[in-house]
# Entry
Amino acid sequence: MTEQVSPASGLHGVVTVPGDKSISHRYAMLASIAQGDSRIYNYSSGADCHSTLSCMRALGIWHEFGDEDGRKVLTIHGKGKNHLEPAVAPLDAGNSGSTIRMLAGILAGQRFTSQIAGDESLAKRPMRRIMLPLAEMGAHIEATDGQFPPLKIQGSQLHGIDYTLPVASAQVKSCVLLAGLFANSETIVREPIATRDHTEIALRELGADLKTERKVIRLQAGAELTGKTIVVPGDISSAAFFIVAALIRPGSDIILTNIGLNPTRTALLDLLRGMGAQIKLLHIEQVNGELIGNLQVKGSRMRGGVVEGATTAAVIDEIPVLAVLGALSEDGLIMRDAEELRVKESDRIETIARNLKRMGATVTTTSSGLEIPGRQTLRAAEIDSCGDHRIAMAFSVAALAANERSAILGAEAASISFPEFYTSLRSLTN
Ligand code: S3P
# Structure
C-alpha cells in the first residue's frame, strides 16, 4: 500500500496514540499465566500485540474484546502458571521480536515442546542473546543456523541464574525474568545499562516477589500471579512521530493525551528539550505502576547534537524519526553506539540513510551509527518502508517538510505498532 503525504505548514489539535506496545505484550503473556481474569484497557491495536494474543490463544488461553462505555477492553482468561497447553501448529510471532524473545522464556519452562516462527524479517533477527541465558537455566532450544527463528523449544525444569546482560536489551532481561517464574530458585538479572522496566512493574502488579536495587533485579522463585484490571498508557514511541512532526513544522501546537511517561522511556523528551524543544507535561498520574500524562508540543528551533552511550539505548526505537529531525536541525545529529539498529525490523542504519538520500539529504553511515548534517532541505521522494513500521512513519514525518507530495511505499507496515497513524497524521495536518 502506498500513502501520499503532502507537505504541511503546521500541526494542530489533540491526538491519542495506541496503548504501549511493550506493556501490552507483557500483560498479554503475564495475564495468560496468572490465575483468573484480567481486564486490560487500551491494549495496543498494533499487529505485533495481536501476534502475542494469537500465540497465547494457540497455547489454550482464551481472550475477548468488549466495549465498556465506548472504551475497548480486552479480557484474558488466565489459567495459572502451569496450565498452558501445547499448540497444535508452530506459533506465529509475525513481525514481533518482543513476542518471540519474551515468550521463549515462558515456553522454556513448560512440560511440552513448542515451535515458534515469524515473518521474513523476524527470521533474520538474532536469538542467541536469549538462547544463551535460557540454556544456562536448563532450557533446550534449537534454532536455524544455531541463532535464527524458527525456534524449537523443549520445555524443561529450569533453575534460577545470576545473569549479567551482555547487550542492553529489555527483551532479553524480560525473557530471563519470565523463565524465572518457572525456575526452582531465585533469578537475578544485572543490567550494565538500564533498559525499560515494564516487565518488572507488571510482575509486581500481578503479585510476583521482585525487587530492583541499583540495576540488579531479583525475582524469587515460586511466585503465583493473579489477574487484575490494568490500564495501558499510550505508547511514547508512537507519540514520538507526532512530537517530532510538531517540532519541525513552525507554528505547530499539539496535545498528546495519556502518554506513558515511565522514566526508562522518556530520555527522548530530555534529549529533545536539551536541543531546544518546547515540550510541556500538562498532567501526570501513576496508574498500575506506570506514569501517564499529557504532552503539549510546539514548533521549535532545534539545535541538534550527539546521541551516544546509555542515551542511544534509551531512544533506540526513536532513532529513525530523530534522524529526520537531525537533517532539519541547526547543527545536525551524530548518533553513536547504535549497532543494535542493524538487527531491528530492518537494518535501520541502512534504511534511514537510503531514504534520507532519496530525499536529497547528505548522510554518512558508520558501523554503529549515523552522521547527519543540519540545515538540509528535503525534497519529495518515493520512500521505501522496507516493511519496517518505524521507517514508514519516520519518513512520513519527513515528507511533511518536503517541497512537494511524497509517496510512502509499503506504508501498511505502520500497522505493526500504529494502525491509526495516517488517520491521526491527517487530523493534525488538515
Ligand atoms: C522492547 C525492547 C527494545 C525495543 C523494542 C521493544 C521491549 O528492544 O527496541 O521495540 O518491549 O522490551 P531490545 O530489548 O532488543 O533492545
Remarks:
- The domain at 2-18+233-429 is CATH 3.65.10.10 (UDP-n-acetylglucosamine1-carboxyvinyl-transferase; Chain).
- The pocket of shikimate-3-phosphate is lined by residues 22, 98, 169-171, 174, 196, 316-317, 340 (CB under 6 Å).
